[in-house]
Specification:
The protein has six helices and six strands. Strand 2 and strand 3 form a beta hairpin. About 6% of the residues have low confidence. The termini are close together. By secondary structure, it is α/β, with parallel strands linked by helices.
């Protein structure tokens, strides 16, 4: 690409910071099934008919903060992360200013903070897509988390520029979404250098 100076994203995104099939919706469905199993027996004489649910499975909206918590947790084992909860607060506060769901099924939640020692990334791939308040109002399938110390402007902006260039390519996005293993996803990222 013209004017494109590629950065090896795999230098900042380790395999253990990639999660395939992130499915918070599925986890919520399991919780709901457990609630149903523990629900009162309709044949019991003290049984009271519950109110109908306001939402069915098709209308559950994933809590964005829960998703961000999962993403921060994904990278928190790294020695580059000083304090997981404070990093999460920075990411949530940044997301509160304006959504980082940039469209085309991609979100790039990010923050610049002293809660990390150096630039670090995480990636979650969610085939089903999750609601993220994206600019195009469509579900997000690829979530790239970025965190950097505040004094690392040059690297931060270079990686953000490179990442946005890569995700403009629909075939790149689709290859990542279709990955069956973390190794595959890592290979797709490394092959872009």
């Amino acid at each position: 690409m013209k004017g494109f100076d590629p950065v090896d994203l795999s230098r900042y995104l380790r395999k253990e910071h990639i999660k395939l099939n992130l499915n918070i919706v599925e986890a919520r469905k399991i919780e709901m099934e457990e609630e149903l199993l523990n629900a009162p027996d309709p044949d019991d004489e003290d049984y009271v008919e519950p109110e109908p649910p306001l939402f069915d499975d098709e209308r559950i909206i994933v809590d964005k903060n829960l998703l961000l918590e999962e993403m921060v947790s994904l990278i928190s084992d790294s020695p580059l992360v000083k304090h997981e909860k404070r990093l999460l607060k920075v990411i949530i506060d940044r997301e509160g200013k304006t959504s980082t769901g940039i469209g085309s099924g991609v979100a790039i939640p990010h923050g610049r903070t002293h809660e990390v020692r150096d630039f670090i990334m995480g990636l979650a791939i969610c085939r089903e897509g999750v609601e993220f308040d994206a600019l195009d109002h469509k579900p997000v399938h690829l979530i790239f988390l970025m965190a950097s110390p505040p004094d690392n402007d040059t690297l931060y902006l270079k990686i953000l520029k490179n990442l946005t260039q890569l995700i403009r390519d629909p075939s790149f996005r689709q290859r990542l979404i279709n990955c069956g293993t973390v190794d595959e996803a890592y290979f797709v990222l490394k092959s872009q250098v």
